[in-house]
Design goal:
The longest helix is centred in the N-terminal third of the chain and has 16 residues. The protein has 9 helices and 20 strands. Helix 8 packs antiparallel against helix 9.
Length: about 350
């Protein structure tokens, strides 16, 4: 059953509790490291120390190493950073890419197919025309947009399969000359999933990863049982969803879960209004080259893998509420909150078990 209310939504609040047990400490104030990377403020917080790490220093060093790994990802996924793997691919300097870029690109192409082309990773030639970060952004020339649209067709982009004997080997990307790939709708989620793997490999079992509003939590704040070295069924984290166009401390809802990814896409993040009062934002329609006109202000996806949540939030925004909701309902372990431009909220059938609206 759907719940409908009025308002609008994306961000987070994290809370915690503490107890002492065994050779680890569950922390009421987590060990947190921050950095500027991926064109945003990123943070990783550990809610439990490592074994016998009474000062917390070993845990902090492990978190710092993970943060450094995130910063290094820009050398793979950045469109703008000269010399990055994606930059070289887009510049036509190589067709061989690291396995991480190949995996992320394949995820994006899978969701492009799922969306029926409403979402496209080959939108890069068009998105380069729009500068939403400028102090004085302007609308690109319509002729330039139409010319760039000739280079948008995800069906012409192909990623070679993984080598089962060496899944971390470089792979090949084939695409027509002049194509430019934009992984902005998937990369942060994909990176968050890799950071989770890094943390678990370092034996950090309870953590929060926040990549500029893309939030992934695992292990719970405390409690839970241990299985194969991992914590399950822990006390839930609280993740706040902020109202779009509202103050940073004004929240629409709270999501409670010990293990989840929460990602939002909306028309309030990178946007501008021109001298004629026309409103433009960064989520572009591959058919027109202009912002999607789906009747939505925001979509929040709740699921396990952050790459899926990241991609789906954009896909569902582009599809619009009816088609986007139908897609979410067809996927296992996936929920969504849709916010229309008039403020009406629609939740997927199982979202009510996770989401508490604050109004």
């Amino acid at each position: 059953m759907r719940r409908r209310r009025r308002a609008a939504a994306a961000a987070l609040i994290i809370s915690a509790s503490a107890f002492l047990g065994g050779c680890r400490r569950t922390l009421s104030s987590p060990i947190t490291e921050q950095a500027f990377a991926l064109d945003t403020i990123i943070s990783v917080s550990a809610y439990e120390t490592l074994d016998n790490d009474y000062s917390g220093q070993k845990t902090r060093e492990a978190v710092r190493e993970v943060i450094s790994d995130c910063e290094a990802c820009e050398n793979i996924f950045s469109m703008q950073r000269e010399g990055s793997a994606l930059w070289k691919l887009n510049a036509g300097l190589t067709d061989t890419v690291p396995w991480q870029l190949a995996d992320c690109l394949q995820t994006a192409l899978d969701y492009s197919s799922l969306s029926g082309g409403t979402f496209a990773v080959s939108i890069g030639k068009v998105s380069q025309l729009w500068d939403f970060t400028s102090d004085a952004p302007t609308v690109p020339d319509d002729a330039d947009i139409r010319a760039a649209l000739a280079f948008v067709d995800d069906s012409k982009v192909y990623v070679s399969p993984k080598d089962p004997s060496d899944p971390e080997a470089d792979r090949t990307v084939t695409m027509p000359e002049g194509y430019v790939l934009d992984l902005g709708a998937v990369a942060k989620g994909y990176i968050a999933d890799r950071l989770k793997e890094d943390l678990l490999e370092k034996d950090i079992r309870r953590a929060v990863i926040n990549l500029g509003g893309n939030v992934l939590v695992f292990g719970g704040k405390s409690g839970g049982t241990q299985q194969d070295g991992q914590i399950t069924c822990g006390e839930p984290f609280a993740i706040g969803i902020r109202r779009p166009f509202a103050q940073s401390d004004e929240y629409l809802a709270t999501v409670r879960s010990p293990d989840i990814s929460v990602v939002s896409s909306g028309n309030y993040e990178r946007q501008f209004t021109d001298e004629n009062g026309n409103f433009y934002y960064h989520i572009l329609d591959p058919a027109t080259g202009y912002p999607c006109q789906s009747g939505l202000s925001q979509v929040t996806i709740l699921t396990g893998p952050s790459a899926d949540a990241d991609a789906l939030s954009t896909v569902c925004f582009c599809l619009g509420q009816e088609a986007g909701l139908a897609l979410v309902e067809s996927l296992p372990d996936t929920e969504a909150v849709f916010v229309a431009t008039d403020g009406t909220i629609t939740e997927s059938s199982g979202a009510g078990a996770l989401v508490n609206l604050t109004q």
